[in-house]
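Hello support,

Our group uses your service weekly, and this is the first time we've seen a run hang past the timeout. The protein is SusD-like starch-binding protein associating with outer membrane. I'm not sure whether the cause is the sequence or the server load. Input pasted verbatim:
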Amino acid sequence: MKNKFLYIAGLSFAILSSSCSKEFLEQTPTDVISAKDLEEAVNKDPGLLSGNIAGLYTTMINTGTGGTTGHDDFGQKGYDIYSDMLSGDLALMGINFGWYSGFSRLTSTIDFTSNVNYIPWRYYYRLIFAANTVIDALGGNDAVPEGTATKHIMGQAKAVRAYAYFYLANLYSREGYGTGQEKILPLYLTTTVPNQPKSTSEIIYNQIVADLTIAIDYLKDFQRTSKDQVNKYVAESLLAYALAARGTNQDLQQVITLTDDVINNSGHPLTTRKQVVANLDETGKLLNPESGFNDVNTASWIWGVDLTQEIGLNLISWWGQMDVFTYSYAYVGDKKGIDESLLKLIPNNDIRKKQFFSDYTARNKFFAPARTLGGTRYATMDYVYIRADEMVVLNAEAKARLNRDQEAITSLKRLLDLRLDDTNYLTSLSGQALKNEIFKQTRIEFWGEGKSYLSMKRNKLSVKRGTNHLDHVGTVFPFNADEITLDIPQAEILNNPNLNN
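Update from on-call engineer: The timeout came from a worker crash unrelated to the input. Re-ran successfully.
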């Protein structure tokens, strides 16, 4: 992958330089390329926008895409760390170098001048601008591309835009979806509009749902060449998350329909017992190399990215911050581990208990294959964004929220039968107790993957911090606490005079 964005000016130059430029200019003898003519040119050669689409996915893994040189600024997986810390499930257990110390204290989250608030804002709106660039080139937000290839491009662009707005709406809105009338974010559907005021959560979510619905339709016959690309099943997974967050009964029924389709038709099975945790012999040799959550080819991964040495991620990466076997921060003392009280909730007959070491680090869940402390210099282990297991648990959650308890238990057992020796206890659960169990299983199964905050927010729950946090030990934070919601950053407030209109 190359770190390259082809914006409208560059795209126009590419079109004028292409083999069809003479005919194109004869048909439209003007100094300005119209959106219609640009779309026609792209329909003739969809490859003209391939750089833009590749750039969207590259932005998700590149360092500095949040506008800083900070070692917590490295794309989506950086914000997975942010959100896991906000939920309290990820405990910072050392601050030799200071990264995430403001998060642990929950002081930077309430300081609108802090980069903690700026970095994700800049990152997600950067993605939105890049997606809008593609959408503009294809005729605008309401355009319906005629060609198959251009529909695939439009579908991916709209899905990425929706993904970005979904994360912004979770991180920067205290109430999550709330009543729908809370004003939360500026909405941009083109690159040409001036600064916008904040739109309500209803408007934002309506746009997310609309974009993903179109994306699913446009991508239904898209055969992707790598897992970093959004296909129909990625778009369905994202839509399921958005609808679960909005949470009407109709939304939840659609969540069940979407997750059923992903589970039954995507070709992605659940993560196996052998893939979930390292199995070591008496010398420490790894006996199951399929474990480690480090290979994009893992069949259960729906959306992820193949990291190579050429990409050059090392110190500044998710692996650098989380993995003690990578030569970076976790190895030299800035360890991050599972919340002590959450670990206690995992029974001994649950294979996932073995993911965690005595120091609370997940060195038997996420690890560089060589498993030498500090021995891996470059992060060639891959990133996971969404895996099939998420859809099974979300399916169970939606059924429980609709009071379809027995169906929810059946769905949840599909995963837990691969994790626990005995799941008969589930049959005694109903109502809020079942919902609580599903939330607990979400926290355990997807620890370190950036999912618990989303679950906490949409289910309007609270979490109490355990004893191994550096700060706020024993403190209960509800989902809408100011401390665990990011502030709109100072830069936006200063540069957008319409923000509070």
